[in-house]
Amino acid sequence: MWSDNETLRDLVNFSHVAEIAAERIVGAKGEPLSLGISGDWGVGKSSMMKLLRTSLEERDDVNIRFVEFNAWLYQNYDDARAALMETITAAVVDQALAKKATLGEKALKRAASLLGRVKKLRVLGIAGSALFDYATQGSVTPFVASGISAVSGLLDGDVTGEDLRKVKELAADGIQNGKELIKEGDEAEVGAETPRKAIQAFRDDLEATLADLDITLVVMIDDLDRCLPKTAIATLEAMRLFLFLKHTAFVIAADERMIRQAVRSHFEEVALNDDLVTNYFDKLIQLPIRVPPLGTHEVRAYLMMLFVDAEASFELEQKEEIRIAVCRRLGRTWKGERVDKSFVSGLMQNCPPGLLNRLSLAERIAPLLTTSPNIQGNPRLIKRFLNTLSLRSSMARIQEVVVDEAVLVKLLLFERCGDKDAYAELLRAVNESENGLAEFLADKEASARGDAEAPPLEKPWNDAFHQNWLALDPPLAEKDLRGALYVGRESHPIISRADELSSEALETLDMLLRMTSASATVDAEVARLTNQEIGRLADKVIAKARQETSWGVPKILNALQSLAGASPSAEASIIAFFSEVPSSQVKASIVPRLSQVEWGKRVLAEFLTRPDLPTPAKNAIGKVGKSK
């Protein structure tokens, strides 16, 4: 099994991106900086943060202290804005205490006062983000939350005395409601100090303390896109208190699309267009860094490295040597150099046979995992794919089900990434088959592998994913898939052809499927069954008939005729089936057979209404009509 947590081990040569970000922080030389690490869910933003921290920790040319903040952990437990302020301030105070022997008395006193100031700011924060905006910026932006009703007059661009009075009342209410958070002796001081002065004093003291300590404070905020809109926006608002202070750098990891949606959702009472949301981000993020999506080279290397890491016979040192070589090679793929089975296995003196097979597997499935709309090279989804595969392999071993791992992989790919109706068709074929074969895949696999004589693929089988899947080894049409589907039954039921059928019905089904011509004996056996059993047999025969791609006089037509003549419900089902047969599959040779029975004439009449019916079939139906 592979862990889904963030990692310090770079498997896809992302360290260079972290190095670039680290250089920007060091190059700022104490000037304020904010970076945004963006990317879709699961692409490795948290891992990128850890790589960035490691890169900064290894540098001797800058004195850095880190603060890691996860707003998601505080959601519903504490005010995220106050929690961020307290976390940052506590880290600075701890650093000051560690250096108290070298700091002057004034610097120590200033550092010690920071926590008290945060407590006062927590009081002011109760008034709502409208007050926070007003206090930090001297005006109220469109990005207000709980205080929006009190400051609505400030949004029209015409600030009046009445508007300011409302904000002051809001501040007074907040201070009154928050008195219990501070010591009784500080009450007069809080009431006397305006919100704006209190915040500015806090900023000044914090900046001076960082200068005294001669450190750059790097604040890493992660999982912001997991938060509810209220928590996400509160955290972003709190950042404004610290932004643009010297000796600070903020690094925010989030899916930008999720945060944009949070902005719109949280401030739904204010009309926000895309430009306003973009401006909001531009003020917060000076340097956006996007985690690059994985291409086929990276996905193939990632799969191979996951398999190498899981190899129990390798020491950690050997795995690390392979990882470094793979990342170095990935940096040269633009020259045409590849990370493939030959390269990776060549990094080992004796590659274990099991690992060699998995490296081959990685080569085959990497293009599908890269291009599939459901995975798109997402590292987290790739790990989940492999973990599911591992679980099914374990189940097969424990229950003594002999299954080829390559078959398991191919079916799991289809289940996760293929068309749902196409996958249901495969399940249906296996369930209906006596020997677990999905025989309808034979022509499709032949077509995908370049057989010019095979019928052309139709929707949904003719898109890029399904064609590549059909061409992927091993071919499945002649393999018994029951075992592979059995160990994956947590996602679909296993229904054998014997379910809900009596022994007499099963024997009759065997006779129907072996028919090569009309048979009075088979007709008599069908007539002995109940209408309910005939209906079930019709469903199973129709499932078999769906595998036909040319409707002249295939053998299965004999079984359909026998069932249609025995039950009105079976007749209706068979007529409905023929209404779904593509016009291109209808041949002229079917017309004489269907014209002999009433239900067949109804099918022919429906065929004749189709504008795309092939001319030979249309002419044959017309001749039958004229002869009568």
From TrEMBL:
Residues covered by the KAP NTPase domain: 15-394
InterPro entries from the UniProt entry: KAP_P-loop, NTPase_KAP_P-loop, P-loop_NTPase
Record Gene3D superfamilies: P-loop containing nucleotide triphosphate hydrolases (3.40.50.300)
Protein name: Putative KAP-like P-loop ATPase
Organism: Rhodovulum visakhapatnamense
Pfam families given in the database record: KAP_NTPase
